[in-house]
Write a structure and sequence with these properties.
The protein is an alpha+beta fold. Helix content is 28%, strand content 34%. It is elongated and about 80 Å long.
Length: 341
């Protein structure tokens, strides 16, 4: 009887030691792995910023190819969500993007099974400026978890890195293979058309290359045009345009143009001039989304010119198809044109 009492006391003491030590164990666990991918940040960001693409590189997808997946929420960016139900290796859970910064990082929140403790996963993109490959990017995949006061999970955190690190390394390898297998550029929104000339009133302007200065200068130019058009009861015809005259050397030189009926008898006035737009063959790209992302579209334009050995034949311009005052930023449509020979 005395032996049994000693065993019980020893067991209680052991439990007490385990609990006390558990409180001194770190509640937070962090693990990260990285890989170099021979593509620019924009190409990688397009893949990781939508959970619609996750199973194309996920390290767990092959563990149960019959698992059920449900996509919900936003198509891309914050709110993009993937839920799943699978076998014992895959289990049940959900993954949702909670933070996203263009071409910089994507952060997701995971729930596994019935756990009340979410885990967090962040994919960070860093351009390799010292690399011989001008399109090389380091992708850092970070796992984070906070177990709070759960003693069992704190002990579990000791072996967690050894358990999940191989999967993260495999996932990064899959991501590299997937991204590098994609075409360097998506030309699905590119076409070659014949453009018909339009008559337009224009205002010429020049500003710095700062985005806020460009936006302000364009807004001012359009305001002048609209005052002139409204004052003279001129009927507009076609979409507003920005014709780029010169980009670089710290300056942006452009024409703001509004097409109108071509049988007008109204004279030019001060800065307001009469103009005939380009007519002939041109590359047309449909740009969807924010004006801040024009750089990506013009990179596609440059690549298309080079790949197809086409020569420019004048200044590029943008047709603003949708009104930013009436349409959300992600739904804006702009046609970008480049005259070619």
């Amino acid at each position: 009887m005395r032996t049994l009492r000693y065993l019980v006391l020893a067991l209680l003491f052991l439990i007490l030691v385990v609990v006390v030590l558990g409180f001194f164990l770190p509640a937070k666990v962090q693990m990260q792995r990285s890989i170099e991918i021979n593509r620019d940040k924009a190409a990688i960001f397009d893949v990781i910023n939508s959970l619609n693409n996750f199973n194309k590189w996920s390290p767990w997808f092959q563990d149960d190819i019959n698992a059920k997946y449900v996509l919900s929420g936003a198509k891309e960016g914050v709110g993009s969500k993937l839920s799943w139900q699978g076998n014992n290796k895959v289990g049940n859970g959900s993954n949702e993007i909670i933070e996203s910064e263009l071409n910089t990082y994507v952060k997701s929140r995971f729930y596994f099974g019935k756990s009340d403790y979410p885990a967090y996963s962040t994919l960070t993109l860093e351009e390799n400026t010292d690399s011989a490959n001008s399109q090389s990017t380091t992708v850092i995949w970070t796992f984070e978890n906070d177990f709070g006061y759960n003693i069992f999970y704190r002990y579990f955190g000791f072996v967690l890195e050894d358990m999940i690190a191989p999967a993260y390394e495999k996932g990064l390898d899959n991501l590299k293979n997937h991204v590098e297998s994609l075409p360097l550029h998506d030309y699905s929104n590119v076409s070659i058309i014949n453009v018909v000339s339009e008559k337009a009133y224009i205002v010429e302007s020049k500003t710095s290359m700062k985005q806020e200065d460009i936006s302000s200068a364009i807004s001012t130019a359009y305001s002048k045009l609209m005052v002139f058009i409204n004052r003279n009861n001129i009927l507009m015809k076609g979409t507003p345009k920005i014709i780029s005259l010169k980009v670089g050397d710290g300056a942006y030189h452009f024409l703001a143009a509004i097409p109108v009926e071509d049988n007008l008898l109204i004279d030019e006035m001060d800065e307001i001039k009469w103009h005939s737009t380009y007519q002939g063959k041109a590359i047309k790209i449909i740009h969807k989304g924010s004006y801040r992302h024009f750089k990506n579209t013009y990179e596609i334009l440059t690549a298309y010119l080079q790949q197809n050995k086409l020569q420019q034949n004048g200044n590029s311009w943008e047709d603003f198809v949708t009104d930013p005052a009436k349409v959300s930023e992600e739904n804006l449509i702009t046609y970008v044109y480049q005259p070619i020979k």
